[in-house]
Structures are given as C-alpha cells and as structure tokens.
Amino acid sequence: MLQNANGEFGEGTxxxxxxxxxxxxxxxxxxxxxxxxKKQQEIIELWHSCSISLVHxxxxxxxxxxxxxxxxxxxxxxxxxxxxxDTSSRGSTPSNVVVGSLNSSPAAR
Length: 109
Hints:
Order of helices and strands: HHH
Helix content: 40-55%
Largest sheet: none
Strand content: under 5%
Low-confidence stretches: 101-105
Number of helices: 3
Distance between the termini: 65 Å
Radius of gyration: 21 Å
Mean pLDDT: 74
C-alpha cells in the first residue's frame, strides 16, 4: 500500500512490517526496573539454595546493572539456576548434564 494523505502507511508496507501495536507489558521499558528487581531477587535466592560461588555472583553483579538489554541474561541465569535447583532436589544429576564450576578442569579430577 502507499502512504495516505495523513502521512501514515497502510498495512503490509515496508514501514509497518514487524511493528506490533500491542507490546508485551512485561517488556515495556517503564516496567523493566520492577521486573529486574524481581528477577534479581529470585536469582539471589537460587544462588543461596544452589551454593553458587561468590566469584560467579560478583561477576554477575558487575556485568548486569539493570539495563533493558540485560533481560536475556537474567532469564538465562534464572533458567540455569532453576534447572540446578530442580536437579539437586531430586537427588540426582542426569548423566548427559555437565554442571560446571571454576574447579571442574580435567586435571582436578
């Protein structure tokens, strides 16, 4: 479609492709600081329950200060910790899963 008299583009034009008029509320920039704090608190609780090293915790806090771009890393850390927590609560580690740490080099085994 072409640009109309108001300067707006119709559906299916290059300018309108990929624009979602209804944005996800959890992804809006105004809600991100609250979402960041919530995820940060969940991560801290999981770090404690999974006995994650202080080195990892410090490195994580130094890298991620709460920018919107950090959301993917926060989600990955939450999923990783949730998996570790679920696995340890079942009392077993699946044979195809490698749980890494700073001291897991082959020489240390």
